[in-house]
Amino acid sequence: xxxxxKTRARSVEAKDKQFQRxxxxxxxxxxxxxxxxxxxxxxxxKLNMGQASLxxxxxxxxxxxxxxLRNDFSKFELGMSEIMQAHKGSYKxxxxxxxxxxxxxxxxxxxxxxxxxQIQAPQAERTGILEQQYDSKSxxxxxxxxxxxxxxxxxxxxxxxxxxxxxxxxxxxxxxxIQTEFFGDQEKIPEYGNIEEYHQFAxxxxxxxxRDM
Length: 213
Description:
By secondary structure, the chain is mostly helical. Helices cover about 70% and strands about 0% of the residues.
């Protein structure tokens, strides 16, 4: 490799490393202060960067938000894709595994999950490039498995879109319930059980629901 190519490669690597640092720090600020409590000035100060330098990477607070979502959803969707590719059983079993993965992903980092699925992005007058390029594929992956289950005769329902969204709603709703005050920091609440107990309870009923379709 020539000297110019080496220099260019190092430059690209350094920029990517800095971009990942911006995403990591931006996520920390959003999760700690919420969308309204974060500014590009605050982020630049936290990163020990000039604002002008920061704007060469990210054009706005809203663009930062979508850069973070793109990063986190790529990990989430990679997990779904790996389940789909590795599993050899029925498509209903694939759906069960995806539901379990979804719940475990949410429990792994509750605040990250809230940012991905529940909190609205900061407002901006313009739609940036990162937002234009952003497209969460998780529901499409789920729909793909549901379609295969229908094609294989495992599920009788023909409206794949509505059924996929219904299954997603059940799993998403389960996560949202777990995040309420009923399942706070207390080790156990008799009426509802602890988080792990409810997690297993919900998974079992999701399995039953899928098997009965």
